[in-house]
Amino acid sequence: MPSVALSHLDHLWFQVSGTLCNLTCQHCFIRCSPTNDQFGYLDLDTVRRHLAESVRLGVKEYYFTGGEPFLHRQMTQILVETLRYGPATVLTNGTVLKDEWLETLRLAEADSCYSLEFRVSIDGFSAETNDPIRGQGTFERAMRGVLKLVDFGFLPIITAARTWDILQEDTVVSCFVAMLKKRGYARPRLKILPTLHLGAEEERTHGYRRTERVTDAMLETFDRTQLICEHSRIVTDRGVCVCPILIESPDALLGGTLGDSLQPFSLNHGACYTCYQYGAICSNPSSQSAREPE
Amino acid sequence: MKQPTERIACFGGVYSNYLALEAALRDAQRRGAERIYCLGDFGAFGPHPNRSLELLRSSNVIAIQGNYDQSIGHAFADCQCGYTDPRDNHFAQLSYDYTLAHTNEDHRAWMRSLPAQWRIELGPLRVLACHGSPRKMNEFLWESTTSTQFLDHLVTQYDADVILATHTGIKWQRALSGRRRFINVGVLGRPENDGHRHVWYTMLEYAPSEGLSVEFIPVEYDAGRLAREMVAERLPGEFVETILSGYWTTCLEVLPSKERRRGKH
Ligand code: SF4
Ligand code: SF4
Ligand SMILES: [Fe+2]
User: Fold this and answer.
1) How many structural domains does chain B have?
2) CATH of the domain at B17
3) Per CATH, the architecture of A3-278 is what?
4) Would you say the ipTM is above 0.90?
5) How far does B140 lie from chain A, in Å, by closest CA?
6) What confidence tens digit (pLDDT) does each residue in B226-244 have?
7) pLDDT (tens digit, 9 = 90+) per residue, B163-191?
8) Which ligand has an atom closest to residue B136 CA?
9) With contacts defined as CB-CB under 8 Å, which chain A residues touch B148?
10) Ligand 1 midpoint to CA B145 (Å)
């Protein structure tokens, strides 16, 4: 079983709203919902403690996910404080954003030398393609969020899980771009993610087959910096886990503090196979680097 | 006898812009640079790659290898720039294939022979020159996505007072703990996505009384002529537009939001 060491803690993630979300998407790999409190909100002090610890470890960037981060009552304050430490990215479904929050965040980003990135999840370029996966009316609600962000001067990265046939990718991407431009987002940014066959997605499509595992031989010539667990950890209300993908697996929980969670991790999950195939799927394009030539 | 003041000029990303290179070399000599360093990426984007290479080599520029030079030197399939957008990859591939086809074997052998990093002494300062970052040749270190504690970690881990890098295409610097510093020295090959045609290089000076001073120097050159030559070589119109407008038209997806908002596209 191949094991991957943490080369350096580049990206510190926060599972800031646990598994709580206002939506119940059919492909959610950790089955978030309004009632799933398996993982709860991170309180502000927990976030602060880890931000402070992250300085000693030389963390480069911060990412916030859930669930829906903006269900957290102190989300704005958390981002404002994070921007004093480094660049921040928040993964949102875009449906609950409020003007006052965005105005506060706009000012905080202008004051900081760091970027605040919003990644808004939308899984189709129309209500017909998006809503069956994310829920009735979610396309229009998310698009209102996108345009609100644009109004406040942000350049949201639209993040879509690949729920279409890969052969249709070019068409889907150009439909996305055309739709966003037509709606008033003049320079759309787009990130396409592979789906993870975990949680709800396992029922929507299928889980991982036993043969879909990473082996030692596969990693021999592989550029390991492509794997999130090689340069990241995630803080949850139960402790620090190896990566945002596997938080529900008992073996993913590594320790109580960042310092306790720096040990190598065995890639014995089906999802690791998706990472192996697609690389640093959770990072922003500005933080990715090409694979080394093999 | 040790000179009281030491002055070195540094730049990266020539991207075959031999006209800007010529102007920068002249300017750096006029300002009394004792040594001139190029941090890699000699080719890409512009026309006639051999011209920049001849100029670099005949001017005794001390060069390190960038991802582009590693690729061209070894004839890899692509430039390893790590673009995620198919449109970026399309344009990058066109100029990569052009550059590879038009670079002499002798220059390619020279590129293969270059080190990935260089240790420089500037007065008492230990300066480490690299391409993207000291740990990865094609790592992007943007101003708005690189925390200060991360840079502190790099200078400590690599035993340096100053780290110099390029690769992203936009200059910046940050003061670090213990009077250490990180400097992205900028590029000569294309403007900085700010609507100006000029490009940039960096002068580093060490004086015992003042310590280190860093100056970013704009370089004016005949952008119209470069654009005409790019058109004549049938390089992508999008690249020509960047040279003339000062705004990036491609590689936009790798920009963080702050850097992207400064541009028009
Ligand atoms: S995919 Fe995102 S928006 Fe949908 S239920 Fe899961 S956390 Fe909520
Ligand atoms: S799921 Fe991906 S990031 Fe998480 S441990 Fe496996 S390979 Fe690493
Ligand atoms: Fe480069």
Assistant:
1) 1
2) 3.60.21.10
3) Alpha-Beta Barrel (3.20)
4) yes
5) 7
6) 999 999 999 999 999 999 9
7) 999 999 999 999 999 999 999 999 999 99
8) 3
9) 86
10) 26
